[in-house]
Specification:
Shape: globular
Strand order of the largest sheet: 1-2
Low-confidence stretches: none
Order of helices and strands: HHHHHHHHHHHHEHHHHEHH
Length: 325
């Protein structure tokens, strides 16, 4: 595991950290898996006693944490076996996506030279000039609104869910094997989970979906709200967010996002070490694209877009990539 900009000494340092017992056994990730699933089950079973006012925010936080765990699993942790990692992330605590679909989409996102390009990067928060010119005022309003903190939190999950489930229904209807393999088991898991919740918790199925699973995805989208920008150089497009300890833990240090993109197989508990050992290098490397705290970001962009909805130079960047290839 290496990144070309790191000097030889730091390359050796990173490799030494990866050979420590903590990284070789991956015990922090195994512990995290146990904590998340046991915490979810505990809150669900105790929710009739604790009530919805206590249980709802706890389960939403656990759901968002689970989404961060799924991100860690699809990057090859805690085992070398993709199938086992996949199985560890299958329980759909937040309902909306199969871990296999997330894995396929997210690994495409890691083509850094194509990062942020609409229609190419599946996690792009921009639209192309052509799509903008064809859209009506309502769609344009939505595209601008989702660049604000409020719009991202309130509207972003609904759009993502509708788009993902709509595509899935079309693919499953056509009998496409990858979609059948991912979505049918997922929907069975969702049905079983909602039955369990409805039977043993204070939540009905619809309450869990709307009051827990939707806010869990909203919380996860807080991290990715201003995670990338439309810069010319790929490394300038990726944020470093020096958030507080609680949000760092919730997002499993993925807030140091440039480190993750440079070293995508680096486990979550080593990311802060690598970043702080080369903090000045990273802050220069992404051309000062730094954020300091998610509350500050939420206030700054509450009703103000982070930047324009239309990607300012997508055709030029795509042409540059094609010339290189």
């Amino acid at each position: 595991m290496s990144a070309q900009y790191l000097n030889d000494e730091h390359q050796r340092q990173v490799q030494a950290w990866l050979e420590e017992p903590m990284a070789r056994t991956e015990w922090p990730t195994w512990l995290l898996i146990g904590v998340i699933y046991s915490a979810w089950l505990t809150v669900v079973l105790l929710s009739p006693t604790w009530g919805l006012w206590v249980s709802t925010p706890l389960l939403a936080l656990i759901g968002a944490w689970h989404l961060s765990l799924q991100h860690e699993l699809i990057h090859g942790h805690p085992t070398r076996w993709t199938g086992l990692n996949h199985a560890l992330g299958m329980p759909p605590l937040s309902l909306w996506y199969p871990v296999g679909v997330y894995r396929t989409s997210h690994l495409l996102h890691h083509r850094d030279e194509l990062l942020t390009l609409p229609g190419v990067d599946p996690e792009s928060n921009y639209v192309s000039p052509d799509d903008w010119s064809r859209a009506g005022p309502l769609m344009r309003f939505f595209w601008v609104a989702r660049k604000t903190s409020f719009g991202r939190f309130a509207l972003g999950p609904g759009h993502a869910i509708a788009q993902s489930w709509g595509e899935a229904l079309v693919q499953v209807g056509k009998g496409q094997v990858p979609a059948l393999r991912d979505w049918l088991p997922h929907w069975l898991f969702v049905a079983a989970l909602l039955w369990f919740v409805d039977r043993y918790s204070a939540f009905s199925a619809w309450q869990y979906a709307l009051l827990v699973a939707y806010p869990a995805l909203s919380l996860a989208m807080v991290r990715s709200h201003y995670e990338h920008r439309a810069a010319v150089e790929p490394q300038h497009r990726i944020v470093i967010h020096e958030g507080g300890w609680f949000m760092r833990l919730l997002f499993l240090n993925n807030n140091y996002h440039l480190v993750h993109h440079d070293l995508p197989k680096l486990p979550w508990y080593l990311i802060p070490r690598v970043y702080h050992a080369q903090r000045a290098t990273y802050q220069a490397r992404n051309d000062g694209f730094i954020q300091y705290g998610y509350l500050q970001q939420a206030r700054q962009f509450a009703l103000t877009p982070t930047d324009g909805a239309v990607h300012p130079n997508a055709p030029d960047l795509l042409a540059r990539v094609e010339r290189r290839s």
